[in-house]
Design goal:
Oligomer: single chain
Largest sheet: 7 strands, mixed
Strand content: 15-25%
Low-confidence stretches: 7-18, 138-142, 382-392
Number of strands: 21
Bound molecules: calcium ion
Order of helices and strands: HEEEEEEEEEEEEHEEHHEEEEEEEH
CATH class of the largest domain: Alpha Beta
Number of domains: 2
Radius of gyration: 22 Å
CATH architecture of the largest domain: Alpha-Beta Complex
CATH superfamily of the largest domain: paralog of FGE (formylglycine-generating enzyme)
Structural class: alpha+beta
């Protein structure tokens, strides 16, 4: 028996390709079963996302399979050293597989690791909705309110064709529920499905990897977020990420009103420089894009927190049900007839990109002008927890 265990360990140290795999932003995944202790697995990987730092970290998430067919997320609570990573390079994390509910682990275990760029948004109030400065023009933004979100992370980019394809392949047969053949459109999305029912495989049309995924419904988006251990942003989180709290253009109730567009208050085409992908009339493609643009194509014009493409490209799904007026203090309605979308799109005029502009969408329909990005609540720092305890 001892010999077998040793052999298994050796095999795992030189594990064949295909047992472990790095998705978007990750390569050279290797696992060591029984390291550093028999009840743990060490997962080594290389993080290739170069532009990350403390304020703009990578979110790293892992999944495992015991049979190569069914995949499960390795939850954050079972993983040490994963989740938020602030520099690129060689990394490792430790999986406490007992905490994942497993009684034993064999050398058949497979692990996938992927990453996603995020931006940190600190806790604190901001001004939401239309203000005297006129930061929203349609859909009854109502009186400005100043919700106070906790700290959170929001996806730097819209979820891409490449990332969504990873999800579809990994959820196997269930992927069929979250795919629509319109996603095969090579100008507007770019995921094709091959194989028979029950054995589908999904492929990215070459060149479409970094375009945002379209023809996803709100429900598809929610499933993707769950798969990644994330969630959709609330409407107020979305808007804070877009406008910030700068007082350069005034304050309201003592809080900076932020910007009119994610990049500032200059018009979308000031000095002949296009800052986002909108529908213009005429000519339609003056900003360089007739349909969607690759994520980050306007990266000089990111939001105050570094978030790309919040204006234009695709309307973005929020977690919240839509109500015509905000309540004050802000609280999204319990139910509604549709959910909130934000930011405008490639087929909507530039007013869609004003930070206060709101739209409403059905939860189940799929269009070529809607997409999404993920969000995550930021963990309270241990020091802050301690401080609260002491105060009590
Ligand atoms: Ca355009």
């Amino acid at each position: 028996m001892k010999y077998k265990a040793l052999l298994a360990t050796l095999i795992c140290m030189f594990i064949p390709i295909g047992w472990v795999w790095g998705g978007y932003g990750v390569s050279n995944v290797a696992i060591m079963i029984g390291k550093p202790t028999p009840d743990k697995v060490t997962i080594k990987y290389e993080l290739n996302l170069k532009e990350i730092d403390n304020q703009h970290p990578a979110y790293v998430f892992a999944r495992y399979s015991l049979d190569g067919i069914k995949w499960k997320p390795i939850e954050e609570k079972c993983l040490t050293g994963g989740s938020i990573v602030t520099s690129p390079g060689k990394k490792e994390m430790v999986w406490n597989w007992g905490a994942s509910g497993l009684k034993a682990i064999t050398d058949k275990v497979q692990v996938h690791v992927s990453a996603m760029e995020m931006c940190f948004v600190p806790a604190g109030p901001f001004i939401m909705g239309n203000t005297p400065a006129g930061y929203g023009t349609i859909s009854h933004p109502g009186n400005p309110v100043n919700p106070e979100n906790g700290a959170y992370y929001i996806g730097k980019y819209l979820v891409t064709v490449e990332q969504y394809c990873e999800f579809l392949n990994e959820v196997g047969n269930k992927g069929a529920e979250w795919y629509h053949e319109k996603m095969g459109d090579k100008e507007k999305c770019g995921i094709v499905r091959e194989g028979k029912r029950g054995q589908y495989a999904y492929k990215v049309i070459p060149g479409r990897e970094r375009y945002p995924v379209t023809y996803v419904s709100w429900k598809d988006a929610v499933e993707f977020c769950k798969w990644a251990g994330l969630r959709l942003p609330s409407e107020s989180e979305w808007e804070k990420a877009a406008r910030g709290t700068s007082n350069k253009y005034g304050t309201y109730k003592g809080v900076g009103v932020g910007f009119k567009y994610p990049w500032g208050n200059e018009e979308y085409n000031a000095n002949g420089v296009y800052r986002a992908n909108f529908l213009e009339n005429p000519p339609n493609a003056a900003d360089g894009y007739k349909y969607t643009s690759p994520v980050g194509a306007f990266s000089k014009f990111n939001s105050p927190y570094g978030v790309a493409d919040l204006a234009g490209n695709l309307w973005e799904y929020c977690q919240d049900w839509y109500a015509e007026q905000y309540s004050n203090p802000h609280k999204p309605p319990e139910r509604g007839s549709g959910i909130v979308v934000r930011g405008g799109s490639w087929q909507y005029p530039p007013m869609g990109g004003l930070v206060g502009t709101r739209g409403v969408e059905d939860r189940e329909l799929r269009f070529d002008y809607n997409g999404f990005r993920c969000a995550k609540t930021a963990a309270t720092k241990p020091s802050e927890k301690e401080e609260k305890k002491t105060k009590r």
